[in-house]
Amino acid sequence: MDTAGTALPDATPESSRAREGAPMPPGSRWANLAWIVSSVVLVVLVVAIWMRVSDGRASADLTNAIIKGDRPAAPALPTDPVSSGTGLPDWYRASGDHQAAGDDNQVLVVNWWASWCGPCKDEAPVLEDVAKDYDGRVVVVGLNAGAEDLRSDAREFAKEHEITFPLVRGDRNDKSAWGVTGYPETFVVGTDGHISSYVNGPVDSRTLRAMLDDELDQDRGGA
Asked: 62 CB contacts (<8 Å, ≥6 apart)?
């Protein structure tokens, strides 16, 4: 039979239509899902690393300035009390969420702590004694870890250690602003609202009192 000039049936369109209408193999769907999940995880990791790096830079900037004696301005303080029994001094109260650090007449001790922190438990009596012994000249404020600590546990901590000085809850932004990388950390803020010294880790009574005496002497115009 002569087939010259006769077009043969084209199977390509049929096979193409068959492929277009065919469902995606299960393996391909799982591969796509795995790729999406991996991408999301990667983005989360990148953001987390960036946030940690940013916090580290804030910590380094603040602490390096203190070490150099530059007396950096203290970040704003949160005003969310741990419990109603831990009232804030009159000058600390504010209408907003934060209050500027510093007072015309009193030096400020800012102590970052958490109820699950072992050294914080050892440090609590030191801070309580200082708050009482320097009453009228120094205000001690404990900044709780906030999201890293349950409010109920923080209240129990205050009750167990018979703390009478103000305890307030900070958040991640507060922690970053103060450059805090762990607990406890203690800062001494002069009446000008600037940080004069700090201790990364537990502070003993002798060290804290020496820091305060030096700052009080500076406020009196001493050498």
From this structure: 72, 178, 179, 195
